[in-house]
Amino acid sequence: MHVFVTGATGWIGSAVVDELLDAGHEVTGLARSDASAATLERKGALVRRGDLDDLDGLRAGAAEAEAVIHLANKHDWGNPAESNRAERAAVETFADALTGTGRAFVLAAGLSTMAAGRRATETDLSPAVGPDSHRGGAENLALEYAEKGMRVISARFSPSVHGVGDHGFVAALVAAAREHGVSGYLGDGTAAWSAVHRTDAARLVRLGLEGAPTGTLLHAVAEEAVTTKEIAEAIGRTLDVPVASVAPEKAAEHFGFVGRFFSLDMSASSERTRELLKWAPFGPTLVEDIEAGAYS
């Protein structure tokens, strides 16, 4: 299958490209820079130059391929409205190009606080609806096309997609611990995050592309709930710094941008995903990765 991948040299996207190529698929990756293009070419992938604002390029990439995996996001924490706008525009563009073709469209989504007081499941719908919501309401927008001749699959990634080289939320927590000389957690530390190793997440995306029916919500979750205190304690052991609770009002000061998320319970189940795709994660746990030096 010829697959057009956005975010093809990103943290998750680069692993997805490797997974697709290893499985015998042909890949065209979207590349913003010469360096990204060269990385894709070395792997044996084709290259389309452009970015998320090049909507004509996105449309052409979709038209030339047999499937689209959309993983790119601006992740502009200083201007989330711009990230939301770009994400919605990209999904609208892909939907216009793929409607009526029967081709697959896999998009990245996040696991947020979908289910108050319990772990989110694949039956929970995202509360993000409309252009002004998180990610521009892209998941719900895409699902509107699930019965319009486009095979829509949403891959909901754990808040921690971890591994050597991760520069996401956990890396920010490690940086804060180094800066302040203490590994912190907020409140009593019972808020919990789901987690998945990067290679397991990439394999799930491929399996979803190959076999998930339209309208499927997939949870890239290996560990359902790792408490924020457990994360802080693992960082503390690795850096040999004390572990302490941080007052909620000090969250931004201590943790930076990740402070707005660290007190949230973002736990989730992947029972239905595992059953549907026979997906069995085998990568290291988040704590194992931290203690093995993945963030050092």
From TrEMBL:
Residues 3-210 form the NAD-dependent epimerase/dehydratase domain. Pfam families: Epimerase. CDD domains: SDR_a7 (cd05262). GO terms for cellular component: cytoplasm. One of its GO terms (molecular function) is aldehyde dehydrogenase (NAD+) activity. This is 3-beta hydroxysteroid dehydrogenase. It comes from Amycolatopsis thailandensis.
